[in-house]
Amino acid sequence: MRYVLFILVFGSLSHLKAQTKDTTFFDKTRQALQTTFGEKPTLKRDLFFEYLKNANEPSYITFIDNYKPTTTLTPSLRAEDGKDIVIEGHLAPSYYIIKPQSNKLGMALSFQGAFTLRLVKDESSPMIPPSNKAGFRFDYLMGTDGIFTTFFTSELMHYSNGGSPGSIDSLLLDTQGILRNDYVKGDFSTNYLRLGQTLIFNTRYFGQKNYLHAYLYYQRDMHINDLLNYFPIQEGRYGYHRIGTSLVLSSTWLGLFSKKEHFATLRYEPTIILDKAEILGETGTSNRMANKLQIIISAPVLGETGIFTQFYWGRDYLNIRYDLPVFYWSFGAAFNSMPEFTQLIKAR
User: Fold this and answer.
1) Contact residues for 237 (Cβ-Cβ < 8 A; gap 6+)
2) Helix (H) or strand (E) segment spanning residue 265
3) Is a pLDDT exceeding 70 seen at residue 337?
4) pLDDT single digits (tens) 235-278
5) For residue 251, what is the enclosing H or E element?
6) How far is CA 220 from CA 94, 147, 158, 190, in A?
7) In a 3-state reduction of DSSP, which class is residue 120?
8) Mean pLDDT of 113-136
9) Residue 339, class by beta-carbon neighbours within 10 Å (0-12 exposed, 13-18 middle, 19+ buried)?
10) Which H or E run includes 215?
11) pLDDT tens for residues 10-60?
């Protein structure tokens, strides 16, 4: 019996010692990371999380839409191609797996989604193929003093229109063999890695709270596997390399009939394709640059809903329609549109 007790006690002590070693190992690892990357105070991590939420693209629905191709198509757009848009809805959820508050390093990991749906004037098929993006985003706080903040962002996303496997993505337009994408039955798929850096300026002037967000990134589209693929037919037409930026200005002012703060957000997002991206059948410019301008007006009486206006010119941003240059403006409502201003800024 004494031998049994000895074995049990010795085993327990050995297990406890092993746990202590493991704990020491993890403690040393955590300390090494904090020494390398720098430990961020709680207030700065809270500030960073608010900035991340402000940086997310807005969810919206538009019900007044004016959509015009800026190039001549043969044949012209049909009703089922989405010639006339009735409603466009965009949902952009973010789910944080790791929040900056949960670690002292100022890191965040999130699942990002972006889903766009268009309803068009076509009795037989009023909905054209949607746009689907899903993937992960990693953010790292590089530094902040409450007014100036900078952080690094990387994203790995899959982007497709949910087309049926094996479907083609081009349609023969004339006897000379000129092709353009089939916007109804065609399939589109790509994956991209995006690396960028954000600089934020957040302060008060003339009694107003102001937030300026400048994000510059490089994007590389790629083929991963048969499930997450980049179709060969997109080569030389959709492009592999892009650079872009997102400039966001949010400001507050007092309402005309209320002393409560109102909010205005201006978001401008230009992108340019760096490599070959031809539009077949078109001569001259290849329309490598696209521009998106969004204006959101929010007020306490509207709750989390804001008045939304968007102007877009360039290649259509809805997946397989990348070979169609358009000018498109729309009007509707944005959701969760209230920008957040921190206690640090309110105190200044």
Assistant:
1) 277, 278, 279, 280, 322, 323
2) strand 261-273
3) no
4) 888 999 999 999 998 887 655 555 667 788 899 999 999 998 88
5) strand 241-254
6) 22, 32, 12, 10
7) strand
8) 91
9) buried
10) strand 208-222
11) 454 454 444 444 456 555 555 544 444 455 556 677 778 888 887 889 999
Task: Count CA atoms within 13 Å of residue 60 on its CB side.
Answer: 24
- Rounded Cα gap, residues 303 and 251, in angstroms: 17
pLDDT of residue 272: 96
Mean pLDDT of the chain: 79
The 3-state DSSP class for residue 51 equals: helix
Nearest to 279, CA basis, from 180, 168, 170, 175: 180
Q: Domains for the chain: give ranges and CATH numbers.
A: 41-346 (2.40.230.10)
Asked if residue 184 lies in contact with residue 163, where contact means CB atoms within 8 angstroms, the answer is no
Q: Give the span between the Cα atoms of 199 and 193, in whole angstroms.
A: 20
Q: Closest by alpha carbon to 107, among 142, 136, 134, 147? A: 142
In single-letter form, the type of residue at position 226 comes to D
CA distance readout (Å), 14 to 8, 26, 178: 10, 18, 75
CA distance 138 to 108: 6
Residue 150: CB partners within 8 Å, gap ≥ 6? 142, 143, 144, 197, 198, 199, 200
d(CA 214, CA 145): 17
- Range list of β-strands (E), 78-207: 85-91, 94-98, 107-120, 131-144, 148-160, 171-172, 179-180, 189-205
